Amino acid sequence: xxxxxxxxxxxxxxxxxxxxxxxxxxxxxxxxxxxxxxxxxxxxxxxxxxxxxxxxxxxxxxxxxxxxxxxxxxxxxxxxxxxxxxxxxxxxxxxxxxxxxxxxxxxxxxxxxxxxxxxxxxxxxxxxxxxxxxxxxxxxxxxxxxxxxxxxxxxxxxxxxxxxxxxxxxxxxxxxxxxxxxxxxxxxxxxxxxxxxxxxxxxxxxxxxxxxxxxxxxxxxxxxxxxxxxxxxxxxxxxxxxxxxxxxxxxxxxxxxxx
Length: 259
Fold this sequence. Notes:
Number of strands: 18
Shape: globular
Largest sheet: 9 strands, antiparallel
CATH topology: Jelly Rolls
Radius of gyration: 17 Å
CATH architecture: Sandwich
Mean pLDDT: 80
Number of domains: 1
Strand content: 35-45%
Number of helices: 1
CATH superfamily: Peptidase G1
């Protein structure tokens, strides 16, 4: 089921199987995760999105737009990916209601699953917000209750051993780490560091300035040398809304061009 582009109430997370939610573990501080389960104290104001697959020029079967910006490696079996970035400051003056999401993940470039972890950067009525999440697409996103602010340093990783996935996100500025465990049999056909546009039919792209990914590795090697490198920009029709810098080892930037 493709829910990308639909804002869902936080209570939707309560529909996730309890066994899956039990895999979300707080590794530090004493602020326990609240992920929208029944009876939790989850923030009811968190905008809830579910993320989507890559739609390249050769397989745009659902619409004519492109929702991913960034780089993805293909051509190998990928069992790990990791990377870091600094949370940009959103400028919501021109894009009062918009959202983008930086994340690290495995699969989704040409497969029907994505194992991914990151956060949403939303402009809601002109106010910026940052909401961390984990997702084993096509399952729904699960949002954390931890604080993320502009300027925070984020490190995220996804790894798999056999059929056991571990997805981890750390905000070293705020001092929290979340780790999520899930079993699955997926293709492991790509590894990526992505900025995704959120909403229906490529809505306004929140002005994030730039996102600078650093030390991105796949299977332990820098992204530039871990397989066939694929570059993608967020586009509306044939109009690019983001632009990637050159990939140098495991470092690159995604730059905002327009809404």
